[in-house]
Write a structure and sequence with these properties.
This protein has helices spanning about 25-30, 50-60, 65-70, 120, 130-145, 175-185, 225-235, 280-290, 365-370, 375-385, 430-450, 515-530, and strands at about 15-20, 40, 150, 165, 190, 240, 245-250, 255-260, 265-270, 275, 315-320, 335-340, 355, 390-395, 405-415, 420-425, 455-460, 495-500. A hairpin with a 5-residue loop joins strand 15 and strand 16. It has about 525 residues and is an alpha/beta fold. Helix 5 (about 130-145) crosses helix 12. It has 2 domains: about 1-75 and about 90-150 and about 225-310 and about 400-410 and about 465-530, FAD/NAD(P)-binding domain, CATH 3.50.50.60; about 155-190 and about 315-395 and about 430-465, Cholesterol Oxidase, domain 2, CATH 3.30.410.
């Protein structure tokens, strides 16, 4: 990799300015850097790969919160939550080169075909302006770029055109326990595609089983966006870290410069022919709203009034307990089996959901040792009593898009640069709550068939978000009803693309990163043709 720049001054002649060095920004920069002068600006730091063991130690010590692992900053990352439901934004976001993929779980599934036509087929949500066939080749491209291990054993998944780049991880010991109960109940289990190496791939090692995948992979076997950011640098791109963009300067139909701050207290203007805003579903609308002007008094690219609107997340449903036999919990740090059997039963009353079979329910021996006061024989006794027989299930549930769920600005609070902080106004609709109930019913049936003593449940009354920020810069063909077109270019500005999960008209119930990557590759193709 080429050496990072020693200064944070603007690039003199940039063709493309990419804002955000997560998976979307990294992929776009990588695709364009061969032929164009690309500069990438990111609000957070560049993390040293060699520090990951240290970050792993933070992850397993109870004295540290999850946000501490990747150097969260309460002042820099300040936010508000004004909705009916509190939204804990800082629980699961990373600002820095690599973005959210530094701490993500790594599951990568394609949306189902009906997810693109939810209003027409299910009577709920909205239809996308593209369908599965439009995105299908980009899904395949994204799987190759991220490095996905999987198997074509899911009869409910959308059609594929080629095998996964790597074979799937083998089912875990606890998967085998679930399989016996599911076979009796006629519930189908199948493998889970993972963006982690089942074998050496793309110069990165195979998974070595650290087990702390979320929030840190010390080996680099789990994909993160530094792969493509560094590749873009090797191809000539310039990456500037700790450069939070404060606003976008513009005229009536073009962005002219990104104004960014630096740690020394200076502000710089990065000019470019084209701008790609890839800051995720919260920071992207925040930047647009902070770029208000006479031409755009309600925020940049916001002639529709929908910037920030239709904020969505996935809801979690879960259940677990203990068995009178070993389950080998926490031997695998990620999911190896799931179930999409009930996904396409969705309608206006109950949404799509997918079931997950946990490999890591209950405490690990390390967590138990670090969280108690026992030592020696007393600790061994507690481990014998409380470790090794836990079993659990999860589910992701779709949230219907609603205009009154939104990301706005709290003008009463500011960050470390004096900008209004994002305000997440969030609530959960009855359809999502009914879907959680349905997922819980199936989970209970499976666990009871196993003979488990159920000890915990996450249901409609105590559900929470999966931290998948979607819907805030909606994609569509009508400029009055959407923010970006099907190629993610803004309707209002001819040289600005918003490449984030904010473009999703609906969320489905699949983890969004593979769809983000596919849309980013599609947008990069459109950018290349436009430049």
């Amino acid at each position: 990799m080429s050496s990072p720049r020693s200064d944070r001054t603007p690039l003199e002649r940039a063709d493309v300015c990419v804002i955000g060095a997560g998976p979307a920004g990294g992929l776009v920069a990588d695709r364009l850097a061969d032929e164009h002068e690309v500069v990438v600006l990111d609000a957070g730091p560049r993390f040293d790969f060699d520090d990951r063991i240290e970050r792993q130690e933070k992850a397993i010590r109870p004295a540290y919160d999850r946000s501490d692992v990747w150097d969260g900053d309460p002042e820099r990352d300040a936010h508000s939550a004004s909705g009916e439901w509190f939204y804990p934004l800082n629980q699961a976001r990373v600002k820095g080169i690599g973005g959210s993929t530094l701490h993500w779980q790594g599951m990568v599934m394609r949306l189902h075909e009906d997810d693109f036509n939810s209003e027409s087929v299910r009577g709920a949500g909205a239809d996308w302006p593209i369908d599965y066939a439009d995105l299908r080749p980009y899904y395949a491209d994204a799987e190759r770029e991220l490095g996905v291990a999987g198997s074509d054993d899911n009869p409910y998944a959308p059609p594929r055109e080629e095998p996964f780049p790597m074979t799937a991880f083998a089912p875990s010991y606890s998967d085998g326990l679930f399989a016996e109960a599911c076979e009796t109940l006629e519930i189908d289990m199948h493998s889970v595609p993972n963006a982690r190496n089942a074998e050496s791939y793309d110069g990165r090692s195979a998974c070595v089983g650290y087990g702390t995948c979320q929030p840190v992979c010390p080996s680099g076997a789990k994909y993160d966006a530094t792969v493509h950011v560094e590749r873009a640098e090797e191809r000539g791109a310039t990456v500037i870290d700790r450069a939070p963009v404060q606003r976008l300067e513009h005229d009536a139909d073009r962005v002219t410069a990104a104004v960014y701050a630096t740690p020394d207290g200076e502000e710089h203007r990065q000019e470019a022919e084209a701008f790609v805003v890839a800051c995720g579903g919260v920071e992207t609308p925040r930047l647009l709203l902070c770029s208000e002007s006479e031409q755009y008094p309600d925020g940049l690219a916001n002639s529709s009034g929908l910037v920030g609107a239709f904020f969505m997340d996935h809801l979690f449903a879960g259940m677990g307990g203990v068995l009178d036999e070993p389950t080998r919990q926490n031997h695998v740090g990620f999911l190896t089996s799931g179930c999409h059997q009930f996904y396409d039963d969705a309608d206006g009353e109950v949404g799509p959901f997918k079931l997950e079979f946990f490999n890591y329910d209950g405490p690990s021996p390390v967590e138990m040792a670090l969280s108690g006061d026992e030592w020696g024989d007393a600790l061994l006794d507690r481990l014998r009593e409380s470790y090794g027989n836990h079993i659990g299930m999860g589910a992701l549930v779709e949230q219907r898009p609603r205009e009154d769920n939104y990301v706005g600005l709290d003008r009463e609070r500011t960050d470390d640069h004096g900008r209004p902080v994002p305000d997440v106004h969030w609530s959960v609709d009855d359809r999502a709550l009914r879907t959680i109930e349905r997922a819980n019913e199936i989970q209970r049936t499976i666990l009871e068939e196993l003979g488990a003593e159920i000890t915990w449940q996450v249901g409609p009354d105590n559900t929470g978000p999966a931290y998948h920020h979607m819907g805030t810069t909606r994609m569509g063909t009508d400029p009055a009803e959407s923010v970006v077109d099907p190629w993610l270019r803004t309707h209002d500005l001819t040289n600005c693309w918003l490449v984030t999960s904010g473009a999703f008209p609906t969320g489905g119930a699949m983890n969004p990163t593979l769809t983000i990557a596919a849309l980013a590759l599609r947008a990069a193709e459109n950018l290349r043709e436009t430049l």
